[in-house]
Amino acid sequence: MLPPAVASRKAGRRIRGSLLRTGLPKAVVALPPGCAQPHSVSLQLWVLRTAPEGPAAGPGVQDALLIDATRAGRPGAREQGPDWEALTASVLSAVARLDSPERELPEDAVRVSLLDLLDDEVDVTPGRYTGSGGEPSGVELSASWRELTGALGELAGPATHLSKLGLTGSEPRTTATVGDLVKAGALTLHAGQQPAETAPLSGTSGTPLLTVPDLLMEGAPGRLLAPGAAHTAAEEGDVIVAGVVRAFRAWVHQGPPVALGPQLYALRVDPEMLDAHFLAGCLRAPANGRQAGTHASSSSRVDIRRLQVLQLPLDEQGAYADAFRRLTDFEQLLKRAGELGGGLVNDAGDRIAAGGLTTARNG
After folding, report:
1. Checking DSSP bridges between strand 25-30 and strand 63-68, what pairing results, if any?
2. How far apart are CA 294 and CA 16, in angstroms?
3. How far apart are CA 127 and CA 146, in angstroms?
4. Which terminus, N or C, of the chain has the lesser number of Cβ atoms within 10 Å?
């Protein structure tokens, strides 16, 4: 897969031109964000012919198929990942029609002569030729602005409440490590592991498997365990901790059991000694992850047993747990508003730069 810099920018112009001159490119597919790292951008998949083919090999040999599948993963691509079955079927169907000019292509695909692609920029971004460009319609933009307005409105209440919390600057309270709490019987620690076999989410049965890569793309589990496979699983009410610096976080699991991959841990509390939301809030403090990291790099592991937790009686933990929950809810609202706003800035900026401004208003 090629990042946008290679697929469209000047830095990759020589590479693109060289590939096109060989006659090998058969198709370029713009994939939806979240398909592979970096998960925040749309990557391009280049499909190459196995060997250069002559003119007699077929009418489409001198053509490339450009497919804009950037919107194939919506809605929910960020949360759930692309619909791989639908995406695969759509792309393979379009590629199969390349050498049959009499067959109509999908609206998000177009045949383009390899010679026509060899212009000054050698820009093979599919959206440039299909006309879709993954751009939302005017109706979709208006809906997004309304959604952003609503999201910003939802921030006001939590922000007001959190701003009124009494936060003291006194000396820190006594803490205990997760290792200490395990020894005291306040919780049990269960480490995730690499499964021997998994299946696609489209399978009909099996336990969802959550991995660190899933967290990095801010999504739900991406695979299923094979039915009957023994594996560490987090149950409802367990605190899940990601034990790697680049994805460090902790939260209380809600819902059906989920299997955990390597570097993920389930902490099961004794409810008579610890409040799960209090524990998760203490663990997820950024300073906690930094001090428990084994190295300075973002790929280093976090020593879960060294993470610090405030030592408080159970009846005092409730107020902290409530504050942590409110802070987490506020973070989610803020994140959603940021994603909406960032998307609108990009979409509106593209439209304006392309001359799409129909009215200019002062102020």
Report:
1. parallel
2. 42
3. 26
4. C
* CA angle (221 as vertex; 346, 70 as ends), nearest 5: 30
Evaluated on CA atoms 178, 180, 184, 189, the torsion sign reads positive
pTM strictly above 0.90: no
Taking alpha carbons only, the member of 176, 134, 347 closest to residue 278 is: 176
What does the alpha-carbon distance between residue 185 and residue 208 come to, in Å, rounded to a whole number? 29
- Distance, in Å, from the CA atom of 157 to the CA atom of 165, rounded to the nearest integer, reads 13
Q: How far, in Å, CA of 220 to CA of 271, rounded? A: 27
Q: What are 220-272's pLDDT values in tens digits?
A: 787 788 776 778 889 999 999 998 888 888 999 998 899 999 999 999 999 99
User: Where are the alpha helices (H) located in the chain, listed in sequence order?
Assistant: 4-7, 13-22, 77-80, 84-96, 114-117, 126-130, 138-163, 178-184, 212-216, 276-283, 286-292, 314-353
Residue 270 exposure: Cα atoms within 13 Å on the Cβ side: 11
d(CA 61, CA 68): 20
CA 215 to CA 213: how far, in whole Å?
A: 5
